[in-house]
């Protein structure tokens, strides 16, 4: 046999060994990889055991710190029983400056609205006498039919102004009740919230499954929402609405008060000698009204309507729309964001429960 013929079988055997060798080495590779893959499992399991052993201590310290913070908040909120002082100073210190400022604002606004109502009633009484049946025929005969039309138009303007004042007084009374009730309910709601929180945390020290109670979280969220409404939202919404109402009032071109109607009343009263005689007073008023008609009394009636509209807008913004809008904004910022994403965060509760589960 030639060397070339003998080399071909050797080459075939070498190629066959190369094909077989990966099949043999591949199981060895997998067997070699199994202990390598089992090592991270051992390390992770040891890491979980060490982490679970330290987790209860961290969660328990967290609960204890929360209990201490809530207890300190109670002592800071009610310093009266723990500090010797007079009753007068305690009563003065118990009221918030924002609460006193809101009451002063409502009282001042009520006095202004009452003065505006007096201006309207005075002019309305004068027009009612001028348009009465006792003097109406003589006025129409002596003067002009246009006087009756102007009286009717002015009377409608005064009715709209009276309605705006009535709604403003009702809104002021409602806001005063809300402010007083919020001030009185704030400490009680704070005690309810702290009591529920302390009870929830103390029970969680002994039984960690309490942290998963949805009823407890809902009660805490409800009490915290009511407390924030009475403590921050209602007082500061009204307090900030004063600034907004002042800015809106300054943007008006005409004064929003009813002093204009007082000037019209003084103009229509006539001479002082006619004030005791009702008939002479009415005739004098209509005479002046007829003279004023020739001097563009229609413009005065339109100006009075503009004053009433601006007054209604001012009261609507300052007493209803702006406080309501600021209340909704503060509620969204405080209750929806703070309570939902910070105080009762579900991820924190789940993390605590996973830590206590590995105990």
UniProtKB/TrEMBL annotation:
<feature type="compositionally biased region" description="Polar residues">
    <location>
        <begin position="1"/>
        <end position="29"/>
    </location>
</feature>
<keyword id="KW-0472">Membrane</keyword>
<feature type="compositionally biased region" description="Low complexity">
    <location>
        <begin position="43"/>
        <end position="53"/>
    </location>
</feature>
<keyword id="KW-0812">Transmembrane</keyword>
<feature type="transmembrane region" description="Helical">
    <location>
        <begin position="125"/>
        <end position="143"/>
    </location>
</feature>
<feature type="transmembrane region" description="Helical">
    <location>
        <begin position="226"/>
        <end position="248"/>
    </location>
</feature>
<feature type="region of interest" description="Disordered">
    <location>
        <begin position="1"/>
        <end position="53"/>
    </location>
</feature>
<protein>
    <submittedName>
        <fullName>Uncharacterized protein</fullName>
    </submittedName>
</protein>
<feature type="transmembrane region" description="Helical">
    <location>
        <begin position="188"/>
        <end position="206"/>
    </location>
</feature>
<feature type="transmembrane region" description="Helical">
    <location>
        <begin position="305"/>
        <end position="330"/>
    </location>
</feature>
<feature type="transmembrane region" description="Helical">
    <location>
        <begin position="61"/>
        <end position="80"/>
    </location>
</feature>
<feature type="transmembrane region" description="Helical">
    <location>
        <begin position="164"/>
        <end position="182"/>
    </location>
</feature>
<keyword id="KW-1133">Transmembrane helix</keyword>
